[in-house]
Each structure stands twice: as C-alpha cells, then as structure tokens.
Design brief:
Layout: H1 12-32, H2 38-55, H3 59-70, H4 73-95, H5 97-108, H6 115-130, H7 133-140, H8 151-168, H9 173-182, H10 186-213
Helix pairs in contact: 1-2, 4-7, 4-9, 6-7, 6-8, 6-10, 7-8, 8-10, 9-10
Length: 214
C-alpha cells in the first residue's frame, strides 16, 4: 500500500493551523457585522484555502490534496445537504410562517414567561424539518426582540431549539456526515440519538419556562 506523503507548511504546526484560524476569524467578523450570507461564508472558506496554498511548501501536492478532497463522496453529500437546507429555510422565511406563529402566540394571550418555550419549540420543529440550525436561527431571530420577553432568554431558547432539531434531522449535514464517516445508516444515527436528545429537550423546555417567568 502506497504511503501518503505528509504535507509540509511554512511555520510548522502554526502554519498548518493558520488557514483554519483565518477562516474562523472571518466567520466571527461576518457574524459580528451581521452580514450573514452563504456568499460571505464561501468567501471566508476561499480565503482560508488561499492562505493554505501560500503556506504549503509543495504547491503541486497541495493541489492534488484539494482535488482529492473535492472528489470525496462524503463532502459532496454534505455540501448538497447544506445547500438544500438553505433553500428550505429561505422558503420558510418568505412564506410568513414565523410571523404567523408569532401572531398566534399573541392572539392566544400567552404570558411572556412562555415565549422562550414557544421559541424553543418553533426552532426545534423548523430545524428538524429543514435540517439546518443556522436557517432556523436566521428565520426566527428577528422576532426575538418583538415578543415582549427578555431578548437574551428568547435568543438562548431559539439557538437551543435550532441545535436540537439539527441534531435529529435526517437531512441535516451533521447527521449525514456522522452516518457516512462511521459507516452507519442515517436512520440508525437518528434512532440512537433520539432518546438522549428528547431527555435534553424536555429538561431544557422546563428550564426555559422557569427562567422565562423569573
């Protein structure tokens, strides 16, 4: 079996980690500036890739590694799932579903203490259906400051619900990546995660009600 050549970078271990640090710094900057978009995310990833190319000692070996990575079946499935999740979340935003749910909560006359729980449940349902935590957060987050409750608590509930659903969604990129990298079926991954997620979800829901009323 042919041994794979180890890639060398200028700067040693730090040089190898620098492209990832560049990518993370750009992602944090994008989030801080509230300019979240798929185009900017791709540009941040491209900037990290360019940094890695400049630091790689063997440019041809780096190019071969990039091409091999692009041909990876797991990566292709994850990218497709990510794009599909983005399309579904955008459709939900344009359909007015979030505004409708907010109106329903208002019409039912629920106390502000229940609003973090409502945000948690709505985000959990959206992220489970669409397979994206980011899409659910972006769709629901604008109403966090308009529901009359503590925005910090509502935002925490929204993020928690989005991650809860993303962890269980069969079309989530994280679920698919877990199944492909571990040699398992997607349905088996979802089934084994379900008991732990439900326990955490119930505990979180109770805590959001308690914190919401306090």
């Amino acid at each position: 079996m042919e041994n794979q050549k180890k890639m060398q970078f200028y700067g040693g271990p730090f040089g190898a980690c620098l492209p990832l640090l560049v990518f993370m710094a750009l992602m944090i900057t994008i989030a801080a500036l509230q300019k979240v978009s798929l185009v900017l995310f791709c540009m941040a990833g491209f900037a990290g890739l360019c940094t890695a190319f400049l630091l790689a000692k063997d440019k041809k070996e780096f190019e071969k590694a990039v091409v091999a990575g692009l041909k990876n079946d797991t990566l292709c499935v994850i990218i497709f799932a990510f794009l599909l999740a983005g399309v579904l979340s955008q459709e939900l935003r344009q359909s007015g579903l979030i505004q409708g749910l907010t109106w329903l909560v208002t019409e039912l006359g629920l106390s502000a203490g229940f609003l973090p729980l409502v945000g948690f449940i709505i985000c959990a349902l959206i992220s489970t259906a669409c397979g994206t935590s980011n899409g659910a957060i972006v769709a629901v987050l604008p109403v966090a400051t308009t529901v009359g409750a503590n925005p910090a608590v509502v935002v925490g509930a929204i993020v928690s619900g989005a991650i809860f659903g993303d962890n269980l969604a069969p079309i989530s990129d994280t679920t698919i990546a877990s199944a492909l990298t571990q040699g398992a079926e997607v349905r088996d991954v979802v089934r084994t995660r379900l008991p732990y997620s439900l326990i955490a979800g119930v505990v979180s829901a109770v805590l959001f009600v308690i914190i919401g009323f306090r």
